[in-house]
Amino acid sequence: MGNALRLLYEKSLEAVVITEGGSVEPRYTTTAPRVSALARDLLNFERTSLVPEDLTQHVVSSRKAQVKWYGKLLQAWKEAKPRPKTPEEVARLIVETLSRHQKADVEGLLEFYDLPHPTIFEEISTGVPIRLPEGVKFEMHTLPVDGNKVPDGDGLYVYVNTDDPRESSNIPRAVLMAAVQRSKARAMKNYARADELRKKIIESGYRVIDFQNEEILAREYRIRLR
After folding, report:
1. Which helix (H) or strand (E) is 6 found in, with range?
2. Cβ(183)–Cβ(57) below 8 Å
3. Which residue from 74, 73, 143, 144 is spatially nearest to 105, judged by alpha carbons?
4. Containing domain of residue 160, as a range?
5. Less crowded by CB within 10 Å, the N or C end of the chain?
6. Tens-place pLDDT, residues 123-139
């Protein structure tokens, strides 16, 4: 039969695969509307590599980053045994799969699908305290610092990803809103508005940084070297 054909039953939102041998295998099966919405979007992403158009209004990161999320979610969905069927199970899958991404993005994705915030969200975002070496009072997980660009003065600027649990709960709402609006402005190619919002973010002590082909909202810190 050539390449496998994928059919989506709109009534039950059950995606099936018809293999070359003619057998029918279920891919996504659910009756919960909120779960079905994600299943439908993942199926569409698998076919087209496109993410929902309105998602940008709910999250901070760029469309390119969103594509990465859906790739990870699609893989996690395929590997899940059994497949998630309730809103709580789907929320847990999203949080676990995107645990290293910005909290604002994960919350926005849950909000987009009207999914609950599971208890595991706090477990993952809080984490287990790490015992620091003797004499060390504080540990900062910064984005990579290029040693060749460290100035000869008495300090330097470093940036901490706001998905760090110690940062995510302290981001000013105005900064989050500016980041979301900037992402939306860039998607609409309104670069003048995007630059205006970028300046507002910088003035608040934050930066939007391109890191590993993904836009990250980061907190700026100045470190004294002596």
Report:
1. strand 5-9
2. no
3. 73
4. 147-224
5. C
6. 544 444 445 567 766 67
Report the distance separating Cα 169 and Cα 167, nearest Å. 6
Q: What is the pLDDT of residues 2-40, one digit of tens each?
A: 333 233 333 333 444 434 444 434 444 444 577 888 988
- Angle formed at CA 51 by CA 49 and CA 53, multiple of 5 degrees: 135
Distance, CA of 194 to CA of 181 (rounded, Å) = 8
99 DSSP assignment: T
Q: Note whether 158 and 180 are within 8 A (CB).
A: no
Residues 168 and 101 in one domain: no
d(CA 196, CA 201): 9
**Token pair belonging to 93:** 């899958």
Task: Please report whether residue 134 resides in a domain.
Answer: no
Distance between CA atoms of 212 and 215, rounded to whole angstroms?
Answer: 8
- The dihedrals phi and psi of 193, each to the nearest 5 degrees, come to -65, -40
What does 142-209 look like in DSSP terms, one character per residue?
PPP--GGG--SSSEEEEEEETTSHHHHTT--HHHHHHHHHHHHHHHTT-HHHHHHHHHHHHHTTEEEE
Instruction: Report how many domains make up the chain.
Output: 2
Task: Please name which of 56, 55, 61, 57 lies closest in space to residue 208, comparing C-alpha atoms.
Answer: 61
**Domain termination residue (choose one: 65, 91, 126):** 126
**C-alpha 90 chain-centroid distance:** 15
